[in-house]
Amino acid sequence: MGQLTHHLSIWTAALLSASAAAEGSIPLVKRDHPAVVSAKLHAAPARPIPVLQARDTISALAMKDLGGYNLNVSIGTPPQSVSLLVDAQDTGIYVLYPGADSVECSEERYCAFYGQFDPRNSSSFTSDRESWRESRPEYFAGLDTLTLGDSKVTNVSLGLWAVDGWSSYSSIGIGPANTSFVYQLVDRGLISTPSFSMWRDPVTAREVDVEADPDDTPGGIIFGGINSAKFNGPLHAFSFNDSAPTMTVPVRGVQVHVDPAASFLLSTANSSSILAGTPINATFDETPFDLQTRYVTSYFPRDTAMAIYAALNMTATRRYDGYYPAPEIPCSRSSENHTITFLIGSAAFNIPWTAFLSPVNIPSQGQCSFKIQIPDEDTEYPSPYKGTLGSTILSYLYMAVDYNSMMVGLASVNQNPGDDEILEIGTDAPQLPGAEGDFPETVSAYTPKPTTETVATETSDGWAASLRTAAPGVLPAVAGAVLFGLV
């Protein structure tokens, strides 16, 4: 497939903090059985599924997955298991299906990971396109049942892409539109608000092998709530109401903490200050960056990116078309212990530089690329904002998003979490439990679609509760504070 891929690494990378002058504390909302739907996430393997970015073709650069998350679900009757890329920039659910040529899934490397859904084998699948069985077009839409753990939702809208078509992945959109999966859960009475939070479990302290397949460091996603045991301190929250549906946060620069033991310091002009423990600052006036959950790469203004490169002893050369490719360095340099601090609002988040190193090829041949790049100023690629925070950054953060208030909150992941503490995101503003930020005084809460039946919920502990009422198309489901094993 020679086309540009649209995304292969999700989850989102939201990086933010609240202005200190505007901070306000939010009371925690705890119930014995909060109305949330929880599931485990997992990272895609580097082989045979390389993480690609917008300018990469499928046969080109193969980057290791350091930020993307996938959700295992079942679709149809009987259920067919597929993996879906969690996409906060989209609002639909798209799955691969065999198509007219009935291409073997195992022959397409993305299909081999994501799996495929064959509507011909589902008795509950329906479509307005009457001829789909005969023509099996490259793309068409339909309805079917989606099972998330023990929660089963019927008549879910699906877009079906042929395995050998231009779209090479399957995804589940959780963006801010009433057609996304988050809103469908509200409509069906399974959660109270169109909201979610997600995280990646801490990576164990060890030397990172950037050339090997990443450990499947699992994470979790909670629709309608947060798990306060998974992060440290308050959630730093920012409004993205002015930029919706794009999530943005105010960024004011980075600091680079260089490893004093790095061999290249012998030839670095700043070696004396680095050896004294002084970070290299690359700051600018606070400006909004968009949060890009589709791509691993982050983009910073040219002067800032060049300062990062210089501090870490790497270079980037502009091509004839104005594009700056990612710098390339020997993967062996991953043994150096550098840290990059991202300054967002009044918060600062430390991330090891190895998070941004990815093999140039698979196998790597010893070369790695550095996934902080310079945007194309002429074409406003990859976004009209001055910078982009890619999904790699969020691998080290806990993120919570509420679409009623259009607020996004971030905190550092707790390296030693205790027992789960599930808190429901309520309907009264301010809504993110335990967050600090400049929340709107009033919120127009999303009104669920008309409901007609009651949904019984049950956890693995055996308790049962009635969750308000649910729209047609909800089957008895497990909800509440229980993590579904989907990996």
Question: How would you characterize this protein structure?
Answer:
Strand 5 and strand 6 (151-162) form a beta hairpin. The two termini are 28 Å apart. The chain has two domains: 20-238 and 404-484, Acid Proteases (Cathepsin D, subunit A, domain 1, Beta Barrel), CATH 2.40.70; 254-394, Acid Proteases (Cathepsin D, subunit A, domain 1). It is mostly beta strands. Residues 1-29, 45-67 and 451-487 have low confidence and may be disordered. It is 7% helix and 31% strand. The strands form seven sheets. Strands 25-11-23-22-8-9-1-28 form an eight-stranded mixed beta sheet. A six-stranded mixed β-barrel has the order 2-3-7-4-6-5.
List the helices and strands and how they pair.
Layout: E1 37-41, E2 70-75, E3 80-87, E4 93-97, H1 109-114, H2 132-135, E5 139-148, E6 151-162, E7 171-173, H3 181-187, E8 195-200, E9 219-223, E10 225-227, E11 231-239, E12 248-257, H4 271-275, E13 280-291, E14 298-299, H5 302-311, E15 328-330, E16 339-344, E17 347-352, E18 357-359, E19 367-370, E20 372-373, E21 388-389, H6 391-394, E22 397-402, E23 407-413, E24 422-424, E25 435-437, E26 456-458, E27 464-466, E28 483-484
Parallel strand pairs: 1-28, 3-7, 4-6, 11-25, 13-21, 14-20
Antiparallel strand pairs: 1-9, 2-3, 2-5, 4-7, 5-6, 8-9, 8-22, 10-24, 11-23, 12-13, 12-16, 15-19, 16-17, 18-19, 22-23, 26-27
Pfam family, one: Asp
Family: Belongs to the peptidase A1 family.
Signal peptide: 1-24
